[in-house]
Amino acid sequence: MTLDRRALIAAGLAASGSAWAAPAVARAAPLPPVPGEMVLGSPTAPVQLVAYASASCPHCAHWWTEVLPQVRKSFVDTGKVRFVFREFLTPPTEFAAAGFILARRIPGKYFEVLSTVFQRQEEIYRSEKLWEGLQAIGKQYGLTDAQFAAAMNDPAALKGVNDRFFRALNQENIEVTPTFFVNGAPIEGDTGFDALAKAFAVAAKG
């Protein structure tokens, strides 16, 4: 699988593996905000769910498309949980970075665009046309080919995605995706809807 070299946007990024389990990182309080994180839900929600995921990670795509919609409907949209998303890069890093840059390029539709990337991830991988797959998503959201190419080659956008990745890797000690924290406590093992619902209930009680 290759991206067109016109979009060599993640060159030099450190390789990072992808796995189900979250690293055993000690956290004692809800995580403070970091630059570039994307948020859904009420700022006064009693429970904070922080997720680190990569646009190129199949496990992340499964969680995002199968579990997150249930979490949003039952907890985020009802004001019980605030969802905080932080970008991470896993191989192919070019695809992950491009997916995030694309999502940020469409005003007000970050989560919608990223959901489309996750929904089509497997199909795009099978086609082995990563650039074209993301370009088609860009067209769906109103970008011309020229605008898509400009987004993929925007040095400020590239710096932003690199900065967010290296902060997560080096300062927040994130090692694999997806990784979750509920009110600052790492969630390991089962991260399905029922398991998260139980974690939210415990966190809400303090």
TrEMBL record:
The keyword NAD does not apply. The keyword Signal applies. Residues 1-21 form the signal peptide. Pfam families: Thioredoxin_4 (PF13462). It comes from the Bacteria. Residues 20-205 form the Thioredoxin domain. InterPro entries: TAT_signal, Thioredoxin-like_fold, Thioredoxin-like_sf, Thioredoxin_domain. Keywords: Signal. Belongs to the thioredoxin family. DsbA subfamily. May be required for disulfide bond formation in some proteins. This is Thiol:disulfide interchange protein. It comes from Caulobacter segnis. The lineage of its organism: Bacteria, Pseudomonadati, Pseudomonadota, Alphaproteobacteria, Caulobacterales.
